[in-house]
Amino acid sequence: MADTRQRLIDGAIETIRAHGLTGTTARSIAATAGVNQALVFYHFGTVHDLLQAACLAATRARVQPFADQLGKITDLRQLLALGRTLHTAERAEGNVMVLAQLLAGAQTDPKLAEATAASLQLWITPIEDALTRLLAGSPVAELIDTAGLARAVSAGFIGLELYEGVDPEGAQAALDALDRLAVLIEVVDDLGPVAVRALRAKLRKTAKNRI
Amino acid sequence: MADTRQRLIDGAIETIRAHGLTGTTARSIAATAGVNQALVFYHFGTVHDLLQAACLAATRARVQPFADQLGKITDLRQLLALGRTLHTAERAEGNVMVLAQLLAGAQTDPKLAEATAASLQLWITPIEDALTRLLAGSPVAELIDTAGLARAVSAGFIGLELYEGVDPEGAQAALDALDRLAVLIEVVDDLGPVAVRALRAKLRKTAKNRI
DNA sequence: GTCTATAACGAGATAGAC
DNA sequence: GTCTATCTCGTTATAGAC
Lengths: 211, 211
Fold this sequence. Notes:
The structure is a homodimer.
Chain A: H1 4-19, H2 26-33, H3 38-44, H4 47-70, H5 76-93, H6 95-106, H7 110-134, H8 146-166, H9 168-191, H10 193-210
Chain A binds a DNA duplex through helix 3.
């Protein structure tokens, strides 16, 4: 069957989720997928190549519904709320954790690094689009780098997922704190031209100090 | 010699840094440490136990000088600047990366989870102290949860380290964006009572919506 | 405490029947 | 495309000499 490939990809994702990257082998993947171990090599050549395919597949499956919800958002705090929803869902489903595991593995594996960077980009792009849209009419828009912020949000989210795995209460506290922090941005936004002038002055001073 | 233990711990850290957690075995550790492979088991019983010891050691070695620098900081943007300095230093030295690798491994290993949670706490505590101190006289102090924020910062930093490994330019952009974001907090701080009143109102409204 | 040697096993990968 | 069988190597861990 042609869907053996798919079963192996799904098996790889599930195995990483359950046993981590260190517990993910051709044998354990095949067992989870319910197929013969040799088929890993027939279809993908090496275990590494299968992991690369699984990395992109796991991300694509999760990003699409997330991107749809992002499109409906109207303010920054809703973005954070969506982040929390995603976080809760991922604790049950766990595809972001799969990406986190592969990201760790990618640190010493250039090929896997390409795949994980591409997967992360799948998250970053819709987030950046949402940020740009939300800040379009705002006076602080010109002062915020949406491209960089989207990357910081995505990378930070991965870090929080990993942290949640070893200290769930701490991760909850972290998310609560970020919730409160997001309010600051909206307040500055609401304050209008006064705050923006103050911001511009601050940023100019900052730029000078940096050089 | 009694310092064989230490050489093994250092070897473990260096091996994780160079080859990742998947490439870290009793043999590779011993080779890096320049000692016999059997000594891993004589001194630590199992590879896992050595990794736990290495996790705490790697963190303790890095946290102390960082905590000292934290004590000299006088505003939030200096905190972010220190974060950048740390980030640059860690790219060369790489102990945070070791923690990130172990954190990924800890997701499916309760014993390692304990060790990594404890290690993360070593970072979180001085950061929380610094935040509390910096915000002591500020009007926004009561509106910010320093405990949660310190956790978010620490976890987010780990995520950025991992992201840097697969997309260095993206990570730089992310850090730049956070730099700009930090200015927002200071501006609100400078605006004084007006902004604080606006914040309080926002937070009250938020609390209602949450319930 | 440190070494050699080795047991016991699981890993990636391949050959070849079907 | 799928299976069994197997090769080769690296893995954890231990036994026992020194």
